[in-house]
Automatic annotation (TrEMBL):
Name listed for the protein in its UniProt record: DUF998 domain-containing protein
Pfam families assigned to the protein according to its UniProt record, in alphabetical order: DUF998
Record has Nucleotide-binding as a keyword: no
UniProt keyword terms in alphabetical order: Membrane, Transmembrane, Transmembrane helix
Keyword presence, Membrane: yes
Organism: Sediminivirga luteola
Chain ranges passing through the membrane: 6-26, 47-67, 73-93, 122-143, 149-169, 181-199
Amino acid sequence: MAETGYWAGAAGAVLFVLVFLVDGGTRPGYSPIRHPVSALALGRRGWIQSANFVVTGMAVTAGAITMATSGQAVLLGAAVAVFGLGLVASGIFRMDPMRGYPPGTPEKDPAVFSARHRMHDLAGAVVFLALPAAAAVAAFMLPGLAWRLGSGLLAVGLLIGFGLFGTAWEEDSPRTGALQRALIVPGWLWLAGVFVQYARA
């Protein structure tokens, strides 16, 4: 049934948020305020976040394919699929240890980043640009003024927030992780809501 893909996408988006919040809040030596979500893929428990990226990305992509092939929202489905595949790539290519995590890692950035880290950065850029693009498309496609207005505002907010996060990351702000979470939580939950909306349509 078509609804299965939508529910899988919604569950994946919500699961992603729950996993990184719980794991990040209980990980020794990890600071959710300073460190990005991607850093959770490092260390002995790193497999949890790596799996979180991949499973969520596959679930979201399944929902996006359902959306696109149902004929209800081809363009929106394509944008969400790019987002989902970016998540999968983020799980396959981990960032380099840096900025004090895992514990014992130097506080500074590596002198040279690995190819794996550069691929992770590229995948992250895809993720954080594809989601506001999807929200912008949704602002013209979703039924109801509330959904359209909310999606449009989210698209603008995510783009601005992505720029602020990029600056915070470059400056190694002590609140980099908190800023990233302020983008991820509403963005991922909005996407879950969109999937639920289509599942119930």
